[in-house]
């Protein structure tokens, strides 16, 4: 009797999970929202700690086969890092990008998929929120922490949105992760490995972890 109950329960759970998994040849859409945690490498990473941001977007997936699908997404994602040596509430940078991932998904079990791909990140906004000033003179690196008034004078002497001028307009990353679908709700966890420099004044890039919740239809 107990064996029958376990068998029926397992079958029911698999049926619920499978109902969320799309059939071959189907196209689905998934709006999602979540959080990110970003760290930096290189010079930028030397003077920064990880910080939390937010992400929101939409993803379209086409199932090529029963267990294999390809997806294209568009997200508005924050890549933020905090000031390691300045004020506790400061931030070396608070950047938001249009994140465009192309990923492949393979379902290793009903509702459970592994994901990998490549993503293009297009800079939207960049902000300096601490008293950290960095510059290069005669090929030597200089940095210091200015008073709020000195920082304001320094920023006002530059172009409009000077922080954005110091960051590259694009960089690529490799998203790696997994998702689990329960009915039409999708929980997605990804690690985004940054490729190449994100700014002209440093040799660092952004690596981030994201967790999102979406609804597939």
- Structural class based on helices, strands and sheet pairing: alpha+beta
What's the order of the H and E elements?
A: HEHEEEEEEHHEEE
Poorly predicted parts: 15-19, 87-91, 140-145
Oligomer: single chain
Report the major sheet: 8 strands, antiparallel, barrel
State the separation between the terminal residues, measured CA to CA.
Answer: 38 Å
Give me the number of helical elements: 4
Q: Identify the strand order in the major beta sheet.
A: 1-2-3-4-5-8-9-10
The total beta strand count reads 10
**Cα shape:** elongated
Residues in helix, %: 10-25%
Instruction: Work out the radius of gyration.
Output: 22 Å
Overall mean confidence score, pLDDT:
79
Q: Tell me the strand percentage band.
A: over 45%
SSE blueprint and pairings:
Elements: H1 2-20, E1 27-40, H2 42-46, E2 48-63, E3 68-83, E4 93-109, E5 112-125, E6 132-137, E7 140-145, H3 148-156, H4 162-165, E8 170-182, E9 185-195, E10 206-215
Antiparallel strand pairs: 1-2, 1-10, 2-3, 3-4, 4-5, 5-8, 6-7, 8-9, 9-10
């Amino acid at each position: 009797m107990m064996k029958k109950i376990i068998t029926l329960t397992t079958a029911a759970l698999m049926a619920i999970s499978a109902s969320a998994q799309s059939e071959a040849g189907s196209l689905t859409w998934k709006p999602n929202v979540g959080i990110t945690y970003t760290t930096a490498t290189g010079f930028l990473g030397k003077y920064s700690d990880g910080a939390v941001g937010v992400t929101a977007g939409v993803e379209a997936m086409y199932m090529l086969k029963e267990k294999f699908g390809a997806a294209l997404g568009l997200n508005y994602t924050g890549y933020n890092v905090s000031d390691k040596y300045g004020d506790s509430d400061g931030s070396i940078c608070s950047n938001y990008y249009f994140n465009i991932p192309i990923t492949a998904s393979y379902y290793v079990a009903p509702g459970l998929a592994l994901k990998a791909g490549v993503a293009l990140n297009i800079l939207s906004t960049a902000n300096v929120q601490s008293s950290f000033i960095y510059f290069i003179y005669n090929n030597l690196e200089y940095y210091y922490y200015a008073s709020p008034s000195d920082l304001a004078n320094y920023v006002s002497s530059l172009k409009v949105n000077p922080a954005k001028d110091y960051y590259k307009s694009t960089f690529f990353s490799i998203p790696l992760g997994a998702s689990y679908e329960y009915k039409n709700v999708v929980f997605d966890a990804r690690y985004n490995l940054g490729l190449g420099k994100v700014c002209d004044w440093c040799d660092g890039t952004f690596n981030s972890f994201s967790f999102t919740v979406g609804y597939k239809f």
